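Course assignment 3, question 2. Fill in each field.
Student: A.L.
Task: Predict the tertiary structure for the chain below.
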Amino acid sequence: MSIYRNGVWFLKGLKEYTKSGYEKASQHFNAGDLEVNLKDRIFMVTGGSSGVGKSIVEDLAKRGATVHLLCRNTERAEAIKNQIKETTGNENITIHALDLSKPADVYKWAKNFAESSHKLDVLINNAGAMLNVKTVTLDSLDAGFAANTLAHHILTTLLIPKLSESDDPRVVMVSSGGMLVQKLNAADPQCDLGEYDSTMAYAQNKRQQVIMIEQYARKHPKIYFSSMHPGWADTPGVEQAMPGFYTKMKDRLRTPQQGADTALWLAISQAAKKYVSGQFFQDRAPTATHLPLARTKCTPEEEVVFMNKIDDLMQKFSQKPKKEGDDAAEGLPGPGEDAEYASSSSSSTPKYSP
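Answer field:
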C-alpha cells in the first residue's frame, strides 16, 4: 500500500467512518425507509452471530422476517435466537452450521438449499475473517480468501435461481472501505506472492467482493445487487483482528447497529432501489470505489480473469469426492465440520466476459 493511499484513506476514515461520521450522515436519513413489515419476506445472513451481522438479524426479526442464519458458532447463534425470540416473539429463525472456509461444504449446502422447497428473497453476505498470519486450509486455499471471497461467490451463484423466484430479490455484500487501498490483483487473488500483510489481504478480499457485485449486477439484471461499507464499528472481529487500532479508536467507533444500518436499508427499503444495481454504498448513498489518484482501477479484462478464476475454483469444489462414512448434520441442510461432499452437478457455469 502506498503512503499516499494510506494517508488519504485514513483521513477520509476519520471524517466519515467513525461514529461522528455516521451521526452527521444520518441527519439526512428518512426514518420511514426502514418502516417495513417483513412478515412475508425470507432472508439469509452469513456470520450473523456477532457484531454487525447480529444487529442485522435482530433488525430483520423485529420486523417479522423469516431468517436463515449461517454460522460456524452454532452455540452462540442459538443464544441469539433465544434472545430474539424473547424480545420480539419471532420464532422464524433457523440456524445452519456452515464453515465458510470449506468450499466443498459450502457448495453442497447451497446446492441442497437451492433444490429444496424453501423460498428466499434476500441474501446478505456479511461474514468476514481477517487473519493475523497467512493461514492455508486443508484445501490449499488462503483461509481469508476462502471465507471472504470464494464462499460468498459459491453461495450467491448457486442461490441465483432461488432468488430469481422472488418478486423483489436482492443480494447485499457487506464489504469494507478498506478495499479503497487495494487494486484488484487478478494474477494473485489469494495473496500468495511476496510478504504477507493480513490487513492488505483482507482489503484485497473486500475489493474482490465489490468487483463480484458489479459483475453479478451485469449478469443478472432481475436481481438487485449492492455492496456496502459499515464504517469503523465496535465489533468483536475488529477488536480481535486489529487490537492496536481498536485501542486507539474505540471511543470513536460506530455501534454495531450503526454499522448495520446501510446493509439493512439496502436489504429492505424501497428507497434503495432508486439507485442502479451493482453499486457500493456508505451511509445509505452510493460512494466512489476508488480514491482520487490512487491508481487502483483495473481493466475490464482483469476483472474477467478474476471472475473466471473463482468460477473455476467453484467448479473444482463442486466435484470433490465424498469420503466413505461422511454424514450430513441434522437440519436442512447442514454439513458437519469435517464433511466432504460429491456433487451431482458437473456442468460448467457460463464464463464472464468484458
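Instructor remarks: The domain at 3-19+33-335 is CATH 3.40.50.720 (Rossmann fold). The first helix runs from residue 3 to 16.
Grade: pending
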